[in-house]
Specification:
alpha+beta; 3 helices; single chain; 109 residues; binds zinc ion; 2 domains
Length: 109
């Protein structure tokens, strides 16, 4: 019985960490609440920044791969130098800019 409890605890922590939550915090929750913590971590939405409805399909535009054109508001690849929809010139945003990749700098004419 103890081993089952520990297995659930570990499973809870692994499930939590794979969802962007604290491994050790949920290890603790798992120790206290057992299977209820596991249910809780499965119910709670993932804290990862990915859009919830979209999996890692490269053809689906996400903030990781695409940005909005400042002129036509269409999605273009984030490192595109020219908008494929309206043809305006673009400056790729820095890859480090995690917070606001949807915002896009337009190059000077
Ligand atoms: Zn455009």
């Amino acid at each position: 019985m103890v081993y089952i409890w520990l297995a659930f605890t570990l499973l809870t922590a692994v499930a939590a960490s794979s969802r962007g939550r604290s491994f050790f915090l949920w290890l603790l929750f798992g120790l206290i609440f057992g299977i209820f913590a596991l249910i809780l971590v499965l119910i709670l939405p993932s804290q990862k920044r990915d859009l919830p409805s979209q999996k890692h399909d490269p053809s689906v535009p996400t903030p990781e791969t695409h940005v909005r054109c400042p002129d036509c508001q269409e999605l273009v690849l984030w490192d595109a130098r020219k908008c494929k929809h309206c043809g305006c010139r673009l400056i790729p945003p820095p890859r480090e800019a995690k917070t606001d990749r949807w915002a896009f700098l337009k190059s000077k004419p």
